[in-house]
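Q: For a teaching session next week I want to show students how multiple molecules come together into a single three-dimensional assembly. I've collected the sequence lines for a complex. Could you give me the predicted structure tokens for the whole thing so I can convert them for display?
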Amino acid sequence: MAQLRARPMVVEAVRTTAPCAGCEARPFSVCNALDLRDIERLSSLAVIISVDAGRTFIEEGDPAEFFFNVTAGTAKLFKLLPDGRRQITGFASMGTFLGLAVSSTYAFGAEAVEPMHICRFSRTRLRVVLDEFPAMEKRLLEVASNELVAAQEQMLLLGRKTARERLASFLVSRAAALPAQDTLLADSPAPIDRHGPLRVSLPMTRSDIADYLGLTIETVSRTLTRFKTERLIEIPSASEILIRDLALLAGLSTGMR
Amino acid sequence: MAQLRARPMVVEAVRTTAPCAGCEARPFSVCNALDLRDIERLSSLAVIISVDAGRTFIEEGDPAEFFFNVTAGTAKLFKLLPDGRRQITGFASMGTFLGLAVSSTYAFGAEAVEPMHICRFSRTRLRVVLDEFPAMEKRLLEVASNELVAAQEQMLLLGRKTARERLASFLVSRAAALPAQDTLLADSPAPIDRHGPLRVSLPMTRSDIADYLGLTIETVSRTLTRFKTERLIEIPSASEILIRDLALLAGLSTGMR
DNA sequence: CGTGCTTTTGAAAATCATCAAGTATAGTGG
DNA sequence: CCACTATACTTGATGATTTTCAAAAGCACG
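A: Of course. Below is the structure for the complete assembly, covering every listed component.
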């Protein structure tokens, strides 16, 4: 049960200019709450950081000094037990805002699964901006509310769904997040009505998927293989899956059979 | 696996005056963000509702017309699968704010486990107040952030902890919430250092506990019995538990043995 | 073209769920 | 006030899904 993990080092800051105005992630992020004029203020506070795949950039329990905004790549967010058991609580991709904890320390860790670009803000300095622009605070509340809904859905999955239902849910949610690969801002009911095979990429390892779904890598592998033999999916490579029957998978994800 | 449940009727509104100024729950709730002068504005929007034990007052999927603030009693919040499997995502007690969903429908249901008093606000009308008082919006963001942290902790529990660890975690969190019985606003590190037996009340049924912890009622019962034979707790009645060794239980809850 | 890591596959083991009574508790009506 | 009934809780025996242990097969990278 207990698999101990090496503790990766926290990434060191790599300072760069922060051109918020031309930021590709802005349309997907809380920063969009500000208009171009105010964006300048934000730019002056932001530091852009590059994070290599596998690097931890938030350490659970560390003083929560910064807020982060993901502008490229994907991170896994996780909590650990003393013996090394890990629960991944979510994946953060372009536009995701991190660090909302009220407490003085981070309640979770974050590690890049792909090379990332992250926009980093000092908490204290961003707080001033938030007080100045209530629109951004409002947007943050929306984001937090959406995350809360997603968290409740994940609790349902972890507490009550079978391995099969968990994997089906995971694949469906990955498909629903296309092309914006971001569930947190999925305000509109994603248009998942297209037919034909749907290509979803899985930048995370089987181990990550297992720790996200509360399973072991073996169960993840076996279940995916079974989906394949049942012609629900194809697995061209380990990091890529073709969904052949999304509706059926969606049914499976809620216990229909 | 699938136990179907009768669908309880939604409670009808029981209109009463809303004396926010003298509200016992205010110190524990978001309403505290307003000073006495502004509280009057709030009062004019609130309707106090009485809910009998067992009554559902939020139906998952219904249009999210209202916000709620619990002023007395306890509710369980839950999500259902089509076949009746249920996941309780949390318990709401005095001071808890409900209905934060951004979407137009409730993402979860809520049912009273004890007779309750609830303060009800129209979403559209409360929105006006929020725009007027940024302090309250800020307080809401804090609340949402704290709930998010609690949700991540629960994901760790549901995804990675054993039955024993889950029950230990549950009892410890009930003890930590004393006397304010409210985890959501537990901003300060709860002073759990007192020794001697600690009395925690469990107003919810074993079935509720099971659905909260992702277990069956039998496993809940067996595990509590085992704690009793191990002298960790006493069980004077089904709805009351004496914790004899909180530190040991706290250790158990994170996998120490 | 090794070498190391990830993934897949197989067999055995374990935790927790299910099925099944039996016991306590609470609420109801006589 | 007490018996009666319904519900909740406990306890036991059995079973199944998932984990654990083990090893082979793929794949990526130097």
